[in-house]
Write a structure and sequence with these properties.
87 residues; alpha+beta; Nucleotidyltransferase, domain 5; 4 helices; 2 strands; 56% helix; globular; RNaseH-like_sf; RNA-DNA hybrid ribonuclease activity; RNaseH_sf; RNase H type-1 domain-containing protein; RNase_H-like
């Protein structure tokens, strides 16, 4: 699941940055993605390069708040993550 959620987080952060948003609240139902992108965890897996991109892009945005939310409250993000993984 991390391999699906991580690219979606990266793409969302890149999109927010391209629009010039100074503050972003990024949510995911994957605690691994939230902790990794927020710098709270070490990552040594297949998504490590993507997490590194997330950290890099988030530093370009003035303020990014990474929040974990339960899957049942995050249906739209789950659909976007699937779309990102397939494309």
């Amino acid at each position: 699941m991390v391999t699906t959620e991580a690219p979606a987080m990266r793409d969302g952060l890149k999109f927010a940055n391209s629009l010039g948003f100074p503050r972003v609240e990024a949510e995911s139902d994957s605690l691994t993605v939230i902790d990794s992108c927020g710098g709270q965890a070490r990552w040594w897996d297949e998504a490590a390069a993507i997490f590194a991109e997330c950290v890099d892009v988030s530093t370009l945005i003035r303020k990014v708040k990474f929040k974990h939310c339960p899957r049942n409250a995050n249906k739209a993000a789950h659909v976007l993550a699937k779309h990102s993984y397939c494309n």
